[in-house]
Design goal:
The complex is a heterodimer of chains A (about 475) and B (about 280). Chain A has about 475 residues and is α/β, with parallel strands linked by helices. In chain A, about 55% of the residues lie in helices and about 10% in strands. In chain A, helix 2 runs antiparallel to helix 3. By secondary structure, chain B is of the alpha/beta class. The radius of gyration of chain B is 21 Å and the shape is elongated. The chains are: A alpha/beta (about 475), B alpha/beta (about 280). Chain A: It comes from freshwater metagenome.
């Protein structure tokens, strides 16, 4: 969904660029395209209208100046970009720590938004910064929410205050109050209170949440919301803002593919910033929310910042420095190095997702290639290299016919697969040599040497292969 | 019909103005039907005579509903196997418990498989429900192989000839291909013992347009046969379910309306459609 939003943005701007001088009508046209792109991404109607209104007002104001600039379309693009960043909350905001500890953080939100998982991630994040957080189990409603928080707390090494078993037993307000007292007594400098999920329309539970807030007097109330939420995002966020009140938003499940809408809608309607984003199932999949990076992704500018961080995380510094020194000393790049790169690349996650972060990744042609990219190719390539002897990996020149056929058998591939890998590898080796001798003129970041022999996405594959039609009507509908 | 009754009363009185159409369009968007569907409905409505606009909208929405059976699969001679799947936090475990309660009220015997070995305390959550509902649940080690838990449960269900086997699986985002493959494996492994009769995708009523992609991807990996639309007691109207039905043909079979074991209703089209337009 998110990808389709940026694809639409790019399409709209491409047609604008072809126009040269801009007229008021051109702006109206692109406004309509942006409007439908935003609606398809679950941006709330009122926010879409606001966005379009602002865009028109701002472009009209500077239309004269715009046309004086060398590239009017890009100037409009800049306006859209800054408007997005503005709505998304400007710059990233940090947790406000209380002058007199403990700092109390209260988590609220709908059922299934991801509060308990987030509590663990937040606790780890704060602990890693040298704090001594305490988790308080005030979700006594959902079966075994308390146990879940205990398990989560244990996995991140943060103590959990859980005097009540939950499952409907115990009073969440008392637990929250006692939890705070416990934290003061034990000198925890941060208290994170996990509460039960509740619907915005449930007056009784909203009152309970308010009571919890009143007894712990939190420094930050965080509203946790699923990034996949639709048009209801606005109603529910308003209900929580009126019912409990909150200071900032945490967006969860951002590793899915729907993320534009909810973020824009909620920040615009509530005026509250998004503070954190959760991006995966691991406790470390958590970061501050960066409005500018998000805007870039929406507009298809790519998310180089995140990509670079992920690369840094995946290539352990040992491997990277080894590669670097090898490169510098003029040693040959071997298939073993190549294998290490493949491993690291796999650690970074799906290739499709990674390449999707590159600028222009969502434009027509590139997107099609991405969609056809077979993740399995990496594994196949890996299996071929793994079927080689150390000698062969160090010196692919020894690969004669009989060796190649043995490797093909060993890896369960065809000899032609082996041939094409070796071919692509030796080309990559050549490029590396050229670069070393300064002919290539291309600077690569450490550890990010060319993905040699990277399987190319099948460029001209016939897409509409006549497959056997499924017997399941639902599935058949999907196929056609 | 509660179909924006006020607006329609006005339209019946005379010409439909541009702003009336805009209002209908916006209501459809607000129900998460999606921009394309909303535009299409407006097109259809504009072609009809002004006094049946309300009916025309209702009927075309109705025609988008899936034609597939909405009854829960049942097999009279062997165990009926049901897999519960979905993205994180939609309410799979709660829905599983509700389904057990629903089946028990029809005097069926049920065995549960706790195949969510990943999320902290998910097994305990299901065990608590099982205890409350007095059914047996097969569990495995934490972070164990979900397929092996499901296999063990299927073997046990077959031996004991339980009426139903319900397999609760871990929530997974449809974008994680590794986790989607894992789900496919659960299905294949269970099918060595028992055929899978029903794969129910749990969709949260607050879900936006992303729900369509979710349904398609789950369809590809495990062949979904029905939807459970949860959290219908909130302010969200769940229009995404209709969008999913139209796009994929997967029918909604149940709707979840609360946190209690009995808060599960069989899907009925009229009240749902009226709710969308209320």
């Amino acid at each position: 969904m998110f990808e389709s939003l940026s694809a639409k943005f790019q399409g709209a701007f491409a047609s604008l660029r072809s126009k040269g001088r801009l007229k008021s009508g051109d702006i109206a046209e692109i406004s309509n395209e942006i409007r439908s792109a935003l609606l398809d991404s679950d941006v709330a109607l009122s926010v879409v209208d606001f966005f379009i209104g602002e865009l028109k007002a701002r472009t009209d104001l500077v239309l004269e100046d715009l046309n004086k600039s060398t590239n009017p379309a890009n100037a409009v693009f800049e306006i859209v970009n800054s408007l997005l960043i503005e709505i998304l909350g400007g710059s990233a905001r940090r947790i406000r720590l209380a002058k007199n500890p403990p700092t109390v953080i209260l988590l609220t939100g709908l059922q299934g938004a991801g509060k308990t998982s987030l509590a663990g991630k937040l606790a780890k994040y704060l602990k890693d910064q040298g704090n001594t957080p305490l988790l308080v189990a005030s979700d006594l409603q959902r079966p075994n929410a308390v146990t879940q928080l205990q398990v989560v707390g244990e996995s991140v090494g943060v103590p959990v205050f859980a005097p009540e078993p939950g499952n409907g037993v115990g009073d969440p307000i008392t637990v929250a109050k006692n939890g705070l007292a416990f934290a003061k007594d034990k000198l925890h400098n941060i208290v994170i209170v996990d509460t039960a999920g509740r619907l915005g329309v449930d007056a009784q539970l909203m009152k309970e949440a308010k009571s919890i807030r009143d007894v712990v007097n939190p420094d930050e109330v965080l509203y946790v919301v699923d990034a996949m939420v639709g048009q209801d995002a606005v109603n529910t966020a308003k209900a929580f803002l009126d019912g409990v009140g909150f200071d900032a938003i945490v967006l969860t499940k951002l590793d899915g593919d729907a993320r534009g809408g909810a973020a824009l809608s909620i920040t615009q309607v509530t005026g509250k910033p998004i503070m954190f984003a959760a991006t995966g199932e691991k406790v470390t999949d958590f970061d501050l929310f960066y409005p500018d990076r998000m805007a870039s992704r929406i507009l298809g500018l790519g998310d180089i910042a995140t990509l670079a961080e992920q690369a840094k995380g995946a290539f352990d510094s040992d491997t990277a420095s080894k590669l670097e020194s090898k490169f510098a000393s003029g040693e040959d790049f071997t298939l073993d190095d190549f294998l290490a790169q493949l491993e690291a690349m796999k650690k970074m996650g799906s290739m499709t997702k990674l390449l999707g972060m590159l600028p222009g990744a969502n434009s027509g042609a590139m997107k099609k290639q991405l969609e056809q990219f077979d993740e399995g190719e990496l594994v196949k390539t890996q299996s071929i290299v793994q079927s080689m002897t150390p000698l062969e990996r160090n010196d692919p020149k020894v690969l004669n016919g009989s060796r190649r056929s043995r490797i093909a058998k060993g890896s369960g591939r065809q000899v032609s697969d082996v041939n094409s890998l070796v071919e692509r590898f030796s080309q990559a080796q050549k490029v590396m040599k050229q670069m070393r001798s300064g002919k290539g003129g291309m600077q690569l970041p450490p550890g990010m040497a060319l993905p040699a022999g990277m399987p190319k996405a099948p460029a001209a594959k016939v897409i509409n292969k006549k497959k056997s039609r499924s017997g399941n009507p639902a599935k058949r509908a999907l196929e056609s | 019909m509660a179909l924006f009754s006020k607006l329609f009363a006005k339209i019946r009185g005379g010409q439909t103005s541009q702003s009336d159409w805009a209002e209908i369009h916006d209501s459809l968007i607000a129900a998460d039907l999606g921009a394309k569907n909303a535009a299409e409905i407006i097109e259809i409505a504009k072609k009809t005579k002004s006094d049946d606009i309300s009916e025309a909208i209702f009927n075309s929405l109705k025609s988008w509903l899936s034609q597939n059976s909405r009854a829960l699969a049942t097999n009279s001679v062997r165990t009926t196997t049901v897999m519960i799947v979905g993205v994180n936090g939609t309410g799979k475990t709660t829905s599983t418990a509700k389904l057990v309660s629903h089946l028990k009220s029809e005097n069926r015997t049920v065995l549960l498989a706790a195949a969510d070995t990943f999320r902290a305390a998910a097994v305990e959550q299901l065990q608590t429900w099982a205890q409350r509902l007095n059914v047996e649940v097969v569990t495995g080690p934490v972070n164990g192989d979900p397929a092996s838990v499901a296999f063990e449960a299927a073997t046990k269900a077959k031996e004991e000839n339980t009426n139903y086997l319900i397999i609760d699986t871990a929530g997974r985002l449809h974008t994680k291909s590794g986790l989607m493959d894992e789900l496919g494996k659960v299905r294949r492994v269970v099918e060595k013992v028992l055929p899978i009769d029903e794969v129910l995708l749990v969709v949260d009523a607050t879900t936006g347009q992303n729900g369509i992609v979710q349904a398609k991807v789950f369809m590809e990996s495990v062949v979904v046969t029905g939807l459970i639309l949860t959290k219908m007691d909130g302010s969200a109207k769940g229009g995404i379910a209709l969008a999913i039905e139209r796009e994929t043909g997967i029918p909604v079979k149940f709707i979840g309306t609360g946190e209690g074991a009995s808060d599960l209703e069989v899907f009925v089209a009229e009240p749902y459609l009226n709710g969308l337009l209320a």
